[in-house]
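Figure 2 data, in text form.
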Amino acid sequence: MDKHTPLEDGAQAVEYIHSFSWLGSRPGLERTRQLLAAMGNPERQLHFIHLVGTNGKGSTAAMLASVLTAAGYRTGLYTSPYIHHFEERMKVDGEEITGEELAAITQWVGGLADQMEEHPTEFELVTCVALEFYRRRGCDLVVLEAGMGGRLDSTNVIPAPEAVVITNIGLDHTAQLGNTVEAIAAEKAAVIKDGCPVILYEQGQEVTQVVENVCQAHGASLTIARADRVELERESPEGQWWKWKGETLFVPLLGDNQRHNGAVVLHTLEVLATKYPVSAQALRNGLAQVRWPGRFEVLCRDPWFVVDGGHNPQCAATVAENLTRYFSGKAPVLLMGVLEDKDRAGLCQAVAPLAHAFVTITPPSPRALKARTLAQELAVYGKPVYAADSISQGVEQAMELAGKEGLVCALGSLYSVGEIRDCVLSKREI
């Protein structure tokens, strides 16, 4: 970047950030540490809740941030990827970074990065920009979601956080993280630092044992987030009502997986209560106000149209469970687009038996599997399959096939969610 050519807006900042790939770069935290040192180490002026895991990180982070904001703490939220636009990745008190802030911070951080012998990768740049944003905004607490993995993820440069939160762990990014849940859990748990409390999503003994061992080595307390402490009172396509410590809490997120994620949130707030107390009213308000688009999100009713960014077999199994749970008796038209490097066979096996028909699309990503190739692979299920030339055409076709009384479910990749939401919401109102 020519330091004499200022970045005038968020779009130019994003273009600069995207010009650096992680492909071909050495894994490690050295570049991030070097850049942060040149920036005056903003991470040392902040306090964090650090989230790692395979599934549910974003929803868990969104709930935590919403409650902490409602409780009066100036709360940063760092998530990835984005649904509609880049600025969604960095928020304070629910508000995205402005284009002007993004341009100004990226100009400064990029100027320092461009002087480095080994240039930081895209995600490393984004993390450093975000940390400076939270410092400038004077955040009391930052809910920081790791990208891929944990041990070598650029977010792992932070000092010991107020808490480490580990969500559901499954097989994803196996080429980088390992091909067993134990290996992946070890990569994620490597963010645990001496003495910090750890809250773990309740899951299999293989993962739990790995986390317990790491906690023991670091003198870190471990809390298993028991979902049976969060009772489901009732639910509808609008959301769920939970009972927790005698309080009824409404959450506008769907699926039993969200009750398990909610248990992680509630146990985390319990662990942090002496340092960051949250009133019952703030808890109710924060959970009721949480928004997390593209995660089993109902977009309209005529037909019912649900969109989910699930892209691995574990996510797809959750989608299948939710379709049966909330739309019993309706065979969905599945609108599917996947990335070539994902376990699409496992994903399809989880949801295909429920389908009335398939419409395939090509996600907007260089790693996308072509719609026609996916259509050929889905033909083995013996149901009607249509390959669409565009996402908008796929949405139209799926809705026509479903009819006004039917059900469409879009899934397979978060990269498609933004355009699908735009297409549906421009046509229909709930």
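Caption note: The mean pLDDT is 92.
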